[in-house]
Amino acid sequence: MKLPRYQWSDLARAQQRALFQRPAVADNATIAASVADTIRKVRAEGDAALYALTAQFDQVSLDALSVSDAEFSAAEASLSKDAREAILTAIDNIGTFHRAQQAAPIRVETMPGVVCERISQPLDAVGLYVPAGLAPLPSAAMMLSVPAAIAACPIRVLCSPPDSQGQIDPAILFAARNAGVSTVFKLGGAQAIAAMAYGTASIPKVVKVFGPGNAYVTEAKSQVASDPMGAAQDMPAGPSEVLVIADAAANPQYVASDLLSQAEHGPDSQVILLCDDAQLIDAVLASIRDQLALLSRADTVRASLAHSALIQVDSIGQAIQLSNEYAPEHLILNLVDARERLHDIRNAGSVFIGQLTPESLGDYCSGTNHVLPTYGYARNYSGLGVDQFMRYMTVQEVNPEGLRQVGPVAETLAALEGLDAHKLAVSLRLADLETP
Amino acid sequence: MKLPRYQWSDLARAQQRALFQRPAVADNATIAASVADTIRKVRAEGDAALYALTAQFDQVSLDALSVSDAEFSAAEASLSKDAREAILTAIDNIGTFHRAQQAAPIRVETMPGVVCERISQPLDAVGLYVPAGLAPLPSAAMMLSVPAAIAACPIRVLCSPPDSQGQIDPAILFAARNAGVSTVFKLGGAQAIAAMAYGTASIPKVVKVFGPGNAYVTEAKSQVASDPMGAAQDMPAGPSEVLVIADAAANPQYVASDLLSQAEHGPDSQVILLCDDAQLIDAVLASIRDQLALLSRADTVRASLAHSALIQVDSIGQAIQLSNEYAPEHLILNLVDARERLHDIRNAGSVFIGQLTPESLGDYCSGTNHVLPTYGYARNYSGLGVDQFMRYMTVQEVNPEGLRQVGPVAETLAALEGLDAHKLAVSLRLADLETP
After folding, report:
1. Model-level pTM?
2. Cβ contacts (< 8 Å) between B383 and chain A: which residues?
């Protein structure tokens, strides 16, 4: 295996730019047409389309879409005590961190008698999607269900594709129910997104869909989000990625394992190391080769590493500047002064401080959310949090004193914009106030 | 003028649904193609395209795109003292309310030795769009610039179309500069959005564009937001709307003036009154006819009122339920018990409490933001606030004690998902911890 290794300052500008290019997203005109067709079918035929599409895409004929109590119980019974405890601990930690994100209401008197407020309320109904393509992902069930439950969205629905036996992975079911989501449907792909966005006889209509997925799921989320009658989406999707900044003091085995963790997510995962020490890069390369032999997904890892890069930089300061430009989903600071360097970090989804904090912890159980902006979107989007399951409503209330204060300001500004009725709405009230 | 008046309980289900239908958005394939062409030109030819498109669409040949210090000074000098003071007071009030929205950093120890944090940071560069089609909108300049300045986004750019003399309205310039935005360009339409999303020699590239606009601006925002190399947008757009809930005690003149205020925004504005008292509706109708005679935009108002509705309901409780389903941008509660009723309100952009709080106050100067979700988007989007000019980054740091606590949980979950490298990244570290 050839691992791409570079010295940043030796590269021409164009080469530098090419290195930080994300893997191109495939032209998806075919996918878009197929997804539009699926959405049309689900809207026209409802549940009947869901059964038919599941038979077609998941090769299984279902008796019912929804997961029964008996299936939840069987799922729990099938899991080891270790697995159940690990899931419950992860849910606890994620809950602890996400409960701290609840925004208090705001009430401000901007002028005497002019009160402005901001109230946050849960979204009425949310739809969570948990993929099971490469492997079932109970961690995704936790990361979506915990904030939805803390936000207290009245309707919380989760969809995940059934296996060939018509079952959802038991760890996903156990995680969802214990995280507060017990309305679960055996439904995958674009049909799941369409069903949640528009509703059917069995599936409640939601106002926002959340969660990762393959190209069909991603396209379906984008299509329903562009329809005012559809559902909003959490954030645009892209392949997962990690950027590691390491100095000479870093343990090369740890760095190698962190790069490999990201690479095993999928062949399109992007993995970048920025390091100011040539010897450490040598040692990381050697360790990657050693560890690769231990991994069951070695082919995926090789595919991912082929378009990744180990880059020698002139200084850690330069590495941080490059990272801020790249805007990684995950950023690991394997540096002796990682905590101090944090102040210089911008444009990253989630940051892992020091050599004892591998990305795996954030993926599963430190408490942070693993649904994060990738593909450069860390420049303009935040990772998932309780706030994305809520929305703010502002409120204002003015008493006579307040109207005397703020009313004339509104009249002047309305006149400036030539909006007579805006002015009149204030003038009528002010005139009555002054009439004994 | 015929004003559409209904009794809700007399209507068939389909009629009820039709009444709450938003005005259809015109099929915009032509607009989409024109906007795509504009974006292509701006990306290919940069500033040259901007000068050419401005000559074409705004019929003015500019010497420079950016507003000079001399132009800012001339703008200030041209405004009356009243106008300047009103703008400064509005900026103060908006600032007071928006400063209260700044989120404090979060730091939680989810397990002993496992620290999770959430840090908010301003977006690197933001682009603000202030339309001037029907009338110049200094209020939009304030509503966009104040939160951008409070968020402290390092690069803040504002675009607004030039008039036939190549000038931007003086009130817009005065408002922008005093609200903290002094990089202003004479640029309107899709070309302004394209220039900010991709950057040119003169216009800095931004990561997110904000603000209202016509169908071309809206389409341009949507197109650049769907390109990962473009810029995110604040929220989807739609025609403005108000829903008023009034009881028998409401002053019919005030109700009429509030409905007319919304109607004068544009012919596609939607205006709905829900009231449980037939006599009040009679009085409101009479007052609308009287006030209409005083308005300079009477034609716009008539067009808007034609697809609006005055609806008699059985009870205020029913009105609130209908409002929650409609999800209005602006909701006026002209009720004796408005404050108590607020607890039942969901799905509204901004709420105006009691008979002394007309929508005009929120449009200009109470302190709340007037950039709000319309077209039913109040179900799943929030109005503009400081948080949309920031994004959150999460951080985690684990010490040896923390890794002993949380590491085995991650190992178990990684094994459940079949991700060997994820497990190895933890196991290697745990093993070293136990080696003396």
Report:
1. 0.96
2. 392-394
d(CA A23, CA A266): 12
Q: Which residues 72-131 on chain B approach chain A with CB closer than 8 angstroms?
A: 82-83, 85-87, 89-90, 92-93, 96-97, 100-101, 103, 106, 108, 110-111, 114, 116, 118, 121, 123-124
Average pLDDT of span A338-360: 97
Nearest alpha carbon to residue B303 among B336, B273, B267: B267
Contact flag B410-A361 (C-beta cutoff 8 Å): yes
Q: What mean pLDDT value characterizes chain A?
A: 95
- Contact yes or no for B138 and A171 at CB 8 A: no
Encode pLDDT of A172-205 as tens digits: 999 999 999 999 999 999 999 999 999 999 999 9
Q: What is the C-alpha separation between A228 and B216, in angstroms, rounded?
A: 18
pLDDT at A134 over 90: no
Identify all chain A residues contacting B232, using CB atoms and an 8 Å cutoff.
Answer: 377, 380-381
Give residue for tokens 């330069």.
A318
| Interface predicted TM-score (ipTM) | 0.96
What dihedral angle (degrees, nearest 10) is formed by the CA atoms of B315, B321, B324, B327?
-60
On average, the pLDDT of chain B sits at 95
Which residue in B has a C-alpha nearest to residue A25's C-alpha? Answer: B228
From the list B232, B265, B291, which residue is nearest A381 (CB)?
A: B232
Instruction: Evaluate whether A360 touches B426 at the Cβ level (below 8 Å).
Output: yes
Asked whether B321 and B310 are in contact (CB, 8 A), the reply is no
Q: Is B250 on the interface with A (CB under 8 A)?
A: no
Helix (H, G, I), strand (E, B) or coil at B77: helix
Where are the alpha helices (H) located in B152-234, listed in sequence order?
A: 170-178, 189-198, 215-225
| Residue from the list B228, B295, B348 with its beta carbon closest to the beta carbon of A421 | B295
Q: How confident is the model at residue A320 (pLDDT cuts 50, 70, 90)?
A: very high
Residue with the bigger pLDDT between B321 and A29: it is B321
